[in-house]
Amino acid sequence: MIEGTIASGGWPLTVSEARLAEARVTAHATTGLWPDATGAAGLAGSRSWRGRARSAVGKVAVLFTGVER
Q1: 4 to each of 23, 30, 38, 59, 61, how far by Cα in Å?
Q2: Number of structural domains, the chain?
Q3: Sign of the C-alpha dihedral, residues 37, 39, 40, 44?
Q4: In a domain, 8, yes or no
């Protein structure tokens, strides 16, 4: 998976547990959903990536793929 990510111009990104928890709270406050840690990983990563400003992007879509049950 990582080889494909890099080959397509992407790169892997990791976030801290604190950033992941923050993303869950933000997701809930904004949407009313409680994504689980896996589901909130995309939001946490996009917020971390945006802070690093690797390149300019107009819009980003985030999918909440797992919900706490």
Answers
A1: 26, 32, 20, 22, 20
A2: 1
A3: positive
A4: no
Q: What is the pLDDT of residues 33-44, one digit of tens each?
A: 899 988 899 899
Token pair recorded at residue 22: 């923050």
pLDDT band at 22 (very low <50, low <70, confident <90, very high): very high
Backbone region of residue 27 per phi and psi (left: phi > 0; alpha: psi in -120 to 50; beta: other values): alpha
The domain in which residue 20 lies consists of 16-69
Helix (H) or strand (E) holding 69: none
> Is 4 a member of any domain?
no
50 in a structural domain = yes
Quote the pTM value: 0.73
